[in-house]
Amino acid sequence: MEFAMKILVTGGAGFIGSAVVRLAIARGHAVVNVDALTYAACLDNVASVAGSPLYAFEQADIRDGAAILAILDRHQPDAVMHLAAESHVDRSIDGPGVFIETNVMGTYQMLQAARQHWEGRGRPGTFRFHHISTDEVFGSLPHDPQVKFTEDTPYDPRSPYSASKAGSDHLVRAWHETYGLPVLLTNCSNNYGPFHFPEKLIPVIILNALAGKALPIYGDGSNIRDWLYVEDHADALLTVVEKGAVGRSYNIGGENERTNLELVRTLCEILDRKRPKASGSYADQITFVTDRPGHDARYAIDPTRIRTELGWRPSVTVEEGLERTVDWYLANESWWRALQNREGVGQRLGVKG
Ligand SMILES: NC(=O)c1ccc[n+]([C@@H]2O[C@H](COP(=O)([O-])OP(=O)(O)OC[C@H]3O[C@@H](n4cnc5c(N)ncnc54)[C@H](O)[C@@H]3O)[C@@H](O)[C@H]2O)c1
Predict the structure, then answer these.
(1) How far is the CA of 40 from the centre of ligand 1 (A)?
(2) Considering the chain, what percentage of its residues have pLDDT values greater than 70?
(3) Is the beta carbon of 38 within 6 A of some atom in ligand 1?
(4) What is the DSSP secondary-structure string of 53-71?
(5) 83 close to ligand 1 (CB < 6 Angstrom)
(6) For residue 247, is it within any domain?
(7) Tens digit of pLDDT for each residue in 225-246?
(8) Span 209-229, average pLDDT
(9) Is residue 194 within 6 Å of ligand 1 at its C-beta?
(10) Do the domain assignments include residue 352?
(11) Which protein residue has the closest C-alpha to ligand 1 atom 12?
(12) Is the model's pLDDT at 1 over the cut of 50?
């Protein structure tokens, strides 16, 4: 690392935010973790760094602009990395309101607080507001390997979740153009890895397999995602906050396109090796279930910009990352058992269409 920063991370008790917090501290940055501790949060995710003198925690809701401004003024960070969000597409279908409140209005409050704080400090040109977003804002791609999302792909969100993230991205760009706030924006593909909340596809498959339950595949399993190991994403995000050009957006992907069915079969092969069943394969538990309404067919990232301009590329293939992920879930049963009791986990959500 070239220089140490103080970074205010929102959503640092979640899946990706906690990976950012752990890696930032490992690299010598100071971190202020701001999180409301919703159902998706788990402070155990940052237990390995919580005793560090570089770590501070503030429980606050990003929708509370006054609280965020007070935290900014108290800690005087060099950069904000804004990850706090409602993140589960299926939940956004059943209850879109909180997605609009947190992802759109919460980001608005973050921008206003950051702007007021930054102006109060004399508008330092070194300040950064890094907004972390998703490739889902670009909509759905055809099954054609030549076509990928670039930073210039028009926005076409199709779920309440992706629409709320698209709205937040527009606000971030507007605060840069209108008020000069030094922003950075990243749009990333599907993440997986340690500490992934047990309502998302990969942990659901691992944990249902171990419990002898059905492995649910939405529709015919042909939907394609571009899978990125969460620690590679955290590395990309720190690369952007350290070296990215102000006002610029960067697409981040794993260059690991797989259909959902291929992904689940790979997980079953890994589990068959590491924790063999008394008889048969975990793949025997695969069950096809009603598709998600408006289920996007394919996401795929063209990562040329971040590779050529910032020199970042993913470090693991999806096969390597899945091996590590399965090992982590096998070794961390007490972590995921506690979260399986949380509201909505283990239920089929988002089937209203
Ligand atoms: N998971 C993915 O594959 C993926 C891919 C691309 C982008 N993203 C984006 O990355 C970010 C993090 O995603 P994740 O998967 O780690 O999410 P997550 O659901 O695991 O964690 C979200 C965190 O934000 C906190 N939070 C939620 N509402 C809050 C509020 N009102 N105030 C303060 N804190 C609040 C939660 O308590 C939780 O700790 C999100 O902005 C998401 O849109 C996720």
Answers:
(1) 8
(2) 99
(3) yes
(4) TTEEEEE--TT-HHHHHHH
(5) yes
(6) yes
(7) 999 999 999 999 999 999 999 9
(8) 95
(9) no
(10) no
(11) 83
(12) no
Active site residues: 135-136, 161
Give residue 49 CA to ligand 1 midpoint distance, Å: 19
pLDDT tens across 2-49, in order? Answer: 689 999 999 999 999 999 999 999 999 999 999 999 999 999 999 999
Domain assignment present for 251: yes
Distance between Cα 97 and ligand 1 center (Å): 16
Q: Is 197 in the pocket of ligand 1 (CB under 6 A)?
A: yes
Q: Ligand 1, residues 15, 132, 195, 260: which to mutate, most atoms within 8 A of Cβ?
A: 15
Query: Measured from the CA of 190, which atom of ligand 1 is nearest?
Result: 3
Tell me, what CATH number does 166's domain have? 3.40.50.720
Strand-pair category, 224-226 with 257-259:
antiparallel
Helix (H) or strand (E) holding 180: none
Residue ranges making up the domain that contains 144? 6-193+228-255+300-315
Report the domain count for the chain: 1
Which pLDDT band, with edges at 50, 70 and 90, does 349 fall under?
Answer: confident
Distance CA 317, CA 325 (A): 12
State how far the Cα of 165 lies from the Cα of 78, in Å rounded to an integer: 24
Q: With a 6 A CB cut-off, is 191 part of the ligand 1 pocket?
A: yes
pLDDT of 84 > 90? The answer is yes
Task: Kindly write down the DSSP assignment for every residue of 135-179, as one continuous string.
Answer: GGGG----S-TT--B-TTSPP---SHHHHHHHHHHHHHHHHHHHH
**Minimum-distance ligand 1 atom for the alpha carbon of 165:** 43
- Average pLDDT over the chain, rounded to an integer: 96
Q: Is 165 in the pocket of ligand 1 (CB under 6 A)?
A: yes
Compute the distance between CA of residue 89 and CA of residue 68 in angstroms, rounded to an integer. 26
Atom 26 of ligand 1: nearest residue by CA position: 84
266 in Cβ contact with 320 (< 8 Å): no
- Quote the pTM value: 0.97
| pLDDT tens-digit readout, 106-126 | 999 999 999 999 999 999 999
Specify the higher pLDDT residue, 199 or 102. 102
Radius of gyration of the CA atoms of the chain, in A: 20
CA of 273 to the centre of ligand 1 (A): 33
Is the residue at 52 inside a domain? yes
Residue 293 Cα to ligand 1 midpoint, Å, equals: 22
pLDDT of residue 353: 56
